[in-house]
Design goal:
By secondary structure, the protein is of the alpha/beta class. It contains 8 helices and 12 strands. The strands form 3 sheets. It has a 5-stranded parallel β-sheet with strand order 2-1-3-4-5, sandwiched between helices. Strands 6-7-8-9 form a 4-stranded antiparallel β-sheet, with helices on one face. Strands 10-12-11 form a 3-stranded antiparallel β-sheet. A hairpin with a 2-residue loop joins strand 6 and strand 7. The radius of gyration is 21 Å and the shape is elongated. The structure holds calcium ion (CA). Calcium ion (CA) binds next to loops.
Length: 223
């Protein structure tokens, strides 16, 4: 089991690391919100649980929690909060944390909470759809490319979701039209092309174009 600790009080972080390692966990520590969030975004598949402090420099624990849940990352999160307020507890759980612990806490209590979370199946949250560095979350209806959020209209989101669910396949204009527009639009209309063009402008970057035009047929999202 590998644990990520994001805690700016280095002394506490080191005590946690040492104690958890003695219990047989592998532990990595990050000391500010920005690098902690980045580590989760890039390497979340390597970890089984995150211990996340609320009061952190750069980005606080609530925001990190919300940001990574928006990206569809389902890693269990145990929040550490200094305050005893119910507000913090509600905010923590609202932002997507699985449990919280109020500082100061007994190490045994932390271990017990961790064991409970690690037993829980991690498939409680629906998975986000990922194509290369593009992430689409069907529940929050948010889209990210390279970790950066891309605002889309409802129609563009629907279009991208359709492409994402059929990544690697060529979709004809007729298929796209019948999937996303009602029968009032006939296939002579260029509405599909217009929307694909707008969508492509938003999701593509200099590095790589994800939406390909297949001449005379339709479009394909690369896999
Ligand atoms: Ca702190």
């Amino acid at each position: 089991m590998r644990i990520l600790v994001v805690e700016d009080e280095e002394k506490l972080a080191k005590i946690l690391k040492k104690g958890l390692e003695q219990e047989g966990y592998a532990v990595d520590c990050f000391f500010d919100g920005k690098s902690g969030q980045l580590q989760i975004e890039i390497n979340h598949e390597d970890y089984d649980l995150v211990i996340l402090d609320v009061m952190l420099p750069e980005i606080n624990g609530f925001e990190i929690c919300k940001n990574i849940r928006d990206q569809g990352i389902v890693l269990p999160i145990l929040m550490l909060t200094a305050k005893d307020g119910t507000e913090d507890k509600i905010m923590g759980l609202d932002s997507g944390a699985d449990d919280y612990l109020i500082k100061p806490f007994a190490f045994e209590e932390l271990l017990a909470r961790m064991r409970a979370l690690l037993r829980r199946p991690s498939n409680l949250l629906p998975a986000a759809l990922e194509i290369k560095d593009l992430v689409l979350n069907p529940v929050t209806r948010k889209v990210y490319r390279g970790g950066k959020e891309i605002p889309l209209t409802a129609k563009e989101f629907g279009l991208l979701e359709y492409f994402t669910r059929n990544a690697g396949q060529v979709l004809t204009r007729e298929q796209i039209l019948s999937h996303l527009w009602d029968f009032e639009y006939d296939s002579f209309s260029n509405i599909v092309d217009v929307h694909v063009k707008n969508l492509r402008k938003k999701i593509d970057n200099e590095k790589e174009s994800l939406l390909e035009t297949i001449r005379g047929v339709g479009y394909r999202l690369k896999k």
